[in-house]
Each structure stands twice: as structure tokens, then as C-alpha cells.
Amino acid sequence: MTLQGLLLEVPVAIGEMESEFFRVGGEHFDRSMISQETACFMLAIRGASILTTMGKVLQADTFDAYDVLQRAFMETRDLLSTFRFDRDETRKRITTWFKNKDKDAWKAEHAICERFFNSVGATDVQLARRWSMFSALSHPTYKATSNSVAVRGASFSAPKRRELVAVLEEKAADYITATLTLFITTSFALKGWIPLGCEVERMPTAEKLRTSAPPIVMPVLARTEGKSLAKAGNARR
User: Fold this and answer.
1) Which of the 8 DSSP states describes residue 155?
2) CA angle 157, 159, 160 (to 5 degrees)
3) C-beta of residue 147 within 8 angstroms of C-beta of residue 137
4) 84, 113 in Cβ contact below 8 A?
5) Could you give the CA distance from residue 19 to residue 21 in angstroms, rounded to a whole number?
6) Which of 21, 89, 98, 149 is most buried, by CB atoms within 10 Å?
7) How many domains does the chain have?
8) pLDDT reading at 78 higher than 70
9) Dihedral angle at the C-alpha atoms of 115, 112, 191, 98, nearest 10 degrees?
């Protein structure tokens, strides 16, 4: 399986996930429109919707919008992770979220989520760091604006167009990984999370991606991380 082959499987996986979210989430919604489970499935459906749009901009002339969509997806997935905690405090937050009056009700508890993921063996997730990084890319900061100029200017330069191929490959690996994180966040029953009741058997393509994608996408993501570390090192000199 190649990176491109994995990418072709993502829309199928998202379709399976959405179908399961509506099937199980609809049952929770019928019981209560403001329950913890209903909130989780509403966020799951939003996450799947954003992922669908993210996939459509993975082209040389449109992917400048990818980082903006990635930030929206991350905020949705991280809030879903927060809302799955089996705590009274979490349920109070969800009640506030449903009222749609607190301007900060949508913000995930990154520190709590990171400690939780560390406790179950998912180390170095860096939710807060990634959120901050993509925030800088989704606002009209100097860095984000420079990226836009570089992307659009590449159409006038053959060497720059070739550079975009590598960047698009990195975005594709990131996109596949984002899809898997939504699948895991909604489908896994970890101690400390409320059960949602999704059946992995109903999402065979997503489960196949979960097991087959890491050996292919991780080297590409490591290449991206290596560039970031190199830039950070140069900035300190």
C-alpha cells in the first residue's frame, strides 16, 4: 500500500464513520437532545464533515486553505476528547456548551487530555502545541501570509511547483492521520471515557486504515517534524 493508495481509502472510511455516528448518535439523540453522548456525536459528525472538506483542498492550487480547516478539525476532535471524560465536571461543561452562551465553552482541556493520553500509553501527543501552531497558520500572521504568497507564487516557477509535491505529500500524511484520530476518539473505549457504543465492525475501511497506515505515514510525518526542529535550531543561533 502506498500513501496515495491510503488517501483513496479515506473518503470510504469517513463515509463508514458518518453512517455509524448517525446510527448510534441518533439513538442517543432520540433519548435526549442534550446528553453527554449526544454532544459527543454532534462533534464527531462535525469532525467528519470538516475532514471531507479537508480532502477536497489537497490540490496544488487549493491546499493553502488546509491549515485553516485542520485547526477547525483539531478544535472539534479535542473538544470531543474532553467531552468523553466520565466526570461530573465534564457533564456540567457540556450543559453550558448546549446553552451556547459561554464564549469559552468550545475550548478543549488540552492539559487534562494530554495527561490522560499519556496514562494510556499515547505519549507525545502535544495537543496544545499543535493547536497553537495551527492557530498561527489560520490567522493572517506574517508566517501564514508568507505561506500563502509562496503557495500562490509557485505556479509561476517550475522548481517551486516541484517543491509543492513534497509539501502535498506531507499534508496527505497529516490528513490520513487526522482521520484515524477521529476514528480512535469515537470508537475506542478507554478507561475514564464514557462508552459511545460505536461498532468497529461497521467501519471496516477505517479499521483497516488504522492498522495499515502508520508504517507509511509516520516516516513522512517524521520528515515534517525534522524540518520544524531544524528551523527552531536555526532560529536559536
Assistant:
1) G
2) 65
3) yes
4) no
5) 5
6) 21
7) 1
8) yes
9) -160
How far apart are the C-alpha atoms of 126 and 116, rounded to whole Å? Answer: 12
pLDDT single digits (tens) 117-171: 676 555 555 555 665 666 667 778 788 888 888 888 877 777 777 778 888 999 9
The grid coordinates listed for 112 are 487534562
Which of 193, 171, 207 minimizes the C-alpha distance to 120?
193
Residue in 6, 47, 16 with CA at minimum distance from that of residue 211:
6
What is the crossing angle of helices 142-153 and 158-187, to 10°? 120
Kindly compute the dihedral angle of the four CA atoms of residues 82, 83, 84, 87, in this order, to the nearest 10 degrees. 90
Write down the residue that cell numbers 477547525 correspond to: 72
With a CB cutoff of 8 Å and minimum separation 6, the contacts of 136 are 143, 144
Cell readout for 61 is: 492550487
Here the cell at position 184 is 480512535
Residues spanned by the domain of 163 = 3-236
* Gap between the Cα atoms of 18 and 192, Å rounded: 24
Query: Is the pTM of the predicted complex or chain greater than 0.70?
Result: yes
For 14, 60, 159, 160, 174, the CA distances from 166, given in Å and listed in that order, are 25, 11, 12, 10, 13
* 34 close to 49: Cβ distance less than 8 angstroms: no
